[in-house]
Amino acid sequence: FYYLEYARVWIPDPEEVWKSAELLKDYKPGDKVLQLRLEEGKDLEYCLDPKTKELPPLRNPDILVGENDLTALSYLHEPAVLHNLKVRFIDSKLIYTYCGIVLVAINPYEQLPIYGEDIINAYSGQNMGDMDPHIFAVAEEAYKQMARDERNQSIIVSGESGAGKTVSAKYAMRYFATVSGSASEANVEEKVLASNPIMESIGNAKTTRNDNSSRFGKYIEIGFDKRYRIIGANMRTYLLEKSRVVFQAEEERNYHIFYQLCASAALPEFKTLRLGMKFTFIVLCDCRYKAASLSFLRISDSYQMGIFRILAGILHLGNVEFASRDSDSCTIPPKHEPLSIFCDLMGVEYEEMAHWLCHRKLATATETYIKPISKLHAINARDALAKHIYANLFNWIVDHVNKALHATVKQHSFIGVLDIYGFETFEINSFEQFCINYANEKLQQQFNMHVFKLEQEEYMKEQIPWTLIDFYDNQPCINLIEAKMGILDLLDEECKMPKGSDDTWAQKLYNTHLNKCALFEKPRLSNKAFIIKHFADKVEYQCEGFLEKNKDTVYEEQIKVLKSSKFKLLPELFQDEEKVLSPTSATPSGRVPLSRTAVKPAKARPGQASKEHKKTVGHQFRNSLHLLMETLNATTPHYVRCIKPNDFKFPFTFDEKRAVQQLRACGVLETIRISAAGFPSRWTYQEFFSRYRVLMKQRDVLSDRKQTCKNVLEKLILDKDKYQFGKTKIFFRAGQVAYLEKIRADKLRAACIRIQKTIRGWLMRKKYVRMRKAAITIQRYVRGYQARCYAKFLRRTRAAITIQKFQRMYVVRKRYQCMRAATIALQALLRGYMARNKYQMMLREHKSIIIQKHVRGWLARVHYRRTLKAIVYLQCCYRRMMAKRELKKLKIEARSVERYKKLHIGLENKIMQLQRKIDEQNKEYKSLLEKLSNLEITYSTETEKLRSDVERLRMSEEEAKNATNRVLSLQEEIAKLRKELCTQQTVSPSVFLVQTHACTSRMDALHETMEKKLVEETKQLELDLNDERLRYQNLLNEFSRLEERYDDLKDEMNLMVVSVKTSEKSKAVHKCRQELESENKKLKNELNELQKALTETRSPEVTAPGAPAYRVLLDQLTSVSEELEVRKEEVLILRSQLVSQKEAIQPKVNNSQQMQCVVKLHCITDLSTPSENWGCNFLSAFTQLLLNFFRLLESQLQSQKKSHENELESLRGEIQSLKEENNRQQQLLAQNLQLPPEARIEASLQHEITRLTNENLVREMVLQEQARGLTFFNYLMPLFFPFPPSLPEATQIIHCVMSSNYSVCFEERNSSRKRNLVRSQLANNWYSLFIAQHFCMKEG
């Protein structure tokens, strides 16, 4: 069903692992080959596996590519996961992707700005799926689960060397330090971060795969108090790679601290270390070391200088050289500078150290021997001492870091961050790589146990429905390494042997495991190596050095010399060399109570120190791994899988082969399967009841907690597939616990708001009553004082008004009298002046009018003369132009009329010729009818004769057969009778009668068999008749095909006539007419041949005058003759119309219009043959249909324009609403970031519930509108289509028109005018379609 044309699939590719292709043809069951086209355009055939017949995996749609969570993909398989990671990493520059409960992190080999304070604040308080995948999201989820579930957490960072595990762990710790803060003023979170550069300096080194590879494993427990603030931390380390101190492979380096120390040799405080020379253990590089972190962790300056002295001493010890005395002894040159510097730095005696570097003490039961050692053994002892000093210094620094990070108050819970070496395989793999890969096997098994096996076992134990999933189990490989008689067991046993060697240990491995364990192999060309099939890859280990590294032998005399040092720090390094940690204690349910810490180091017993010291490195490492696994199993793990995109450390470069190897090894694909189908969250019934009691009403609480939880969950979560009820626990799908937490927070928030509302209302009412009483008292006194003041003001105002009245009256009267006198004097002077001016103005106006009269008359006369001249000139030009046009038109009309006459003469001749041809065809048709009737008469007589002869012959044949059979039977009976007469002479007449009766019965049976044969022969004849009928039908079909060919030729002739240029139309028409005449002759010949074939091949029964086939043929001939007569009449009508049109042509008809009329007349005369009249009617119907179609197109364009405008307006409204929503979201985000973490979580939950509620309301409205539209469409269907169409094409056209052009009309239900318009347009369409159908059916 899915493998159709254009479907995209993934096919294997040796270079790109998987390649995208497209199907060119549908896949059908049984096909062995798929036709594919690659993205680069190359076509290929993909052969399916004949055994499995497995189809290639399908590709996800483009809309799903780049998803944050791999479990959200439609098709979950390896190529989809690989492509999604590649798109996010290369195209989107995103290095983090979720895979269910696992975070996949791809190393970008580049610094990215995604780890700042603002990013940490953005992820703080958010759910894991609300924001983009990030290491901060995993850290926030662990922190939130620790606070919510009251259970310790672990973050397990795993991956290959160079995949970015250390950086991921560092950022996780930075997040905890930033979000939680410190519970005291000791700045514990800063100390936790300050420990990272110290540990990287003394424990990290450059390898061929990573410039900053961790050469030890560490598990950091960050402790929190009851308010979930950091109070301290503790660090545990695993298997420091001590051999790197004295040996580094090609293109690898020693630990960073040595290079940092040597690069700082020029500093004044480091001059006493004498670091200016060349050292054997390292190759110098440019780097600086900062001791600020050591000071911050409360390591004093003296201890810091002591650390640098010990490190410098290790470097100088590596330069100590030995000279051979003989094969069994060696010596150190006197006053050897490197050794003297080493002794000065370490504070030990030169003679003692030089002596014990070249000798060793052997103790027996009775006495002690001092034995010299060879140069090779001396060099090995020197290197072992250097490694031992560095390892003890490393442990001492770790202890002091733990002391600085130790919690001063009681620890409530912790979050552990595991950063341990990744899976390694080099050209030469030794004991260190074996231990590293063994640790990775244990971690992978823990991941499998947590994600796969424990999940399924938990579901089965709780008896909930679950399907078992097969997965890769690391236990066989772990058993091969650590089980009894395993590799480690055999190695420890060989170390205890007096003469044990690497070769004998290798032989023991071959004898024990070769051909017995599928995971153990032996190289072909080596007897000192073995191969183990790990979960990630096959690794070949060289046995050389395994015993020595496992023993970790250091001569006791050298240690005693160092312990006797005057240097204070050096003896401290060897006080407690081994510490034993107690196993992790956990409750049976897996939850650790908060009243105590889950993992604590136990104090070593007094008598165990010497015993522990004798344990091998492999045994100690195995015990530490068991403790680590117990710790991880007692916490809730969170997984971060780091992927190395390429081996060349190029930024944002993705190597598909390397990536898919790591994806297969780390179990990402299996995580996708089980995370999508499993139940990651689970609660006991009591825990669920205690947590979500606030969501239950009083009547819902029952004595049975299990039933109470079931009733509540059925109300809260409607989808029953989202949870399952086990025997003791409730299992939830991903995201359901967050949903319940959101409902709980809303319920608590509503209760808090109600309490606050009531208390605040009571307080405000009390305050209001008190304020109202005080305000009334104040108002009474104030209003009395204001009333008294107002009365006094009124009295004073009244007196002032009286005084002002008399004073103002006097002043105004005096002013009026002065102004009146001045005004009268001024008026007299002004009126005299104005009268004189008016007289002067009237005189000037009279004179100017006389001048204007004469000037305007002259200007008018000049303008009239110019205008008259221009008009006359324009009339001349226009009349000349019109005369030229008229002359040209007359010339064209003269030419066109002559041409028309010529064409008309030719047309009359052609019509007469066609009339004569029709008459000749009629005559031939009549003669053919007469011949046909004569043939039928003769044929009928002959057939009657033949039938009578056949019947007579049949009867004679049957009589002859019957006679012969009867003669034979009578002869046999006579012989029998003769025998019976001879034997029985005394037979009575009754017996003779019986025999005669038997003979008659036999005759009747023979008669019945003859009748059956006759019936069978008649059936055979009927079958032959049916065959002849079929042949006759085939001939009729051939005849109809020829007629259709004739019609096609006629249509082609019409198209050719229309498309040919005007100058060549007459030739093309004449040529087409000749072709039609030849085609007509061919049709006549074929008709004659058909008639001959009918007369020759028909059987008598079929072609008889009364037969059905004969009647059908006769009816067709009569219909053809009637059609010929009708078309003959139509030709005569066309001739009369042609004559009338020729007489009605006006002399001023345009030339182009005349040519079109001529072309139309040619077409009419050519189509006026007896078999072509239906084409004219069909053209008229088709023209009407095109007109209606154009009208529909116009209405459709208008409706589309209106709908486009409506959609534009709606989109503008949506853009405005989205802008408002965006502004509101930004305001909410800004408000949330200002709130504390608890209030921030509640605000985010409230905002999420509001958003979901709005979306549900919008979806309900959309569904209601769709239901309304569907109901109205069902209502309109019988109105627009009251009758079923007769043509399938008409039905399809009408449905297309309805669905595309009239959707706007359907939306306006109350618009009767538009409904009538649609109905009228549909009626026109039906009318045109039925006309076309009528003519098509009429012509077959």
TrEMBL record:
Q: Name one GO biological process term.
A: actin filament organization
Q: Which GO terms describe its molecular function?
A: actin filament binding; ATP binding; calmodulin binding; microfilament motor activity
Domain Myosin N-terminal SH3-like per the UniProt entry, residue ranges:
4-56
A cellular component term from Gene Ontology for this protein is: membrane
Q: Can the keyword Transmembrane helix be found in this entry's annotation? A: no
Region Disordered: start-end pairs: 581-616
- Protein name as catalogued: Myosin VA
Task: Provide the leader sequence positions.
Answer: none
Q: Which organism is it from?
A: Accipiter nisus
Is this entry keyworded Phosphoprotein? yes
Region described as Actin-binding: 625-647
Domain spans labelled Myosin motor: 65-745
The entry marks the following residues as binding ATP, namely 159-166
List the InterPro entries hit by this protein, alphabetically: IQ_motif_EF-hand-BS (IPR000048), Kinesin_motor_dom_sf (IPR036961), Myo5a/b_dom (IPR058662), Myosin_head_motor_dom-like (IPR001609), MYSc_Myo5 (IPR036103), P-loop_NTPase (IPR027417), SH3_Myosin (IPR004009)
* Protein family (similarity comment): Belongs to the TRAFAC class myosin-kinesin ATPase superfamily. Myosin family.
Coiled coil start-end: 897-980, 1018-1096, 1194-1235
Instruction: Identify the domain of life.
Output: Eukaryota
SUPFAM superfamilies named in the record = P-loop containing nucleoside triphosphate hydrolases
Keywords per UniProt: Actin-binding, ATP-binding, Calmodulin-binding, Coiled coil, Motor protein, Myosin, Nucleotide-binding, Phosphoprotein, Repeat
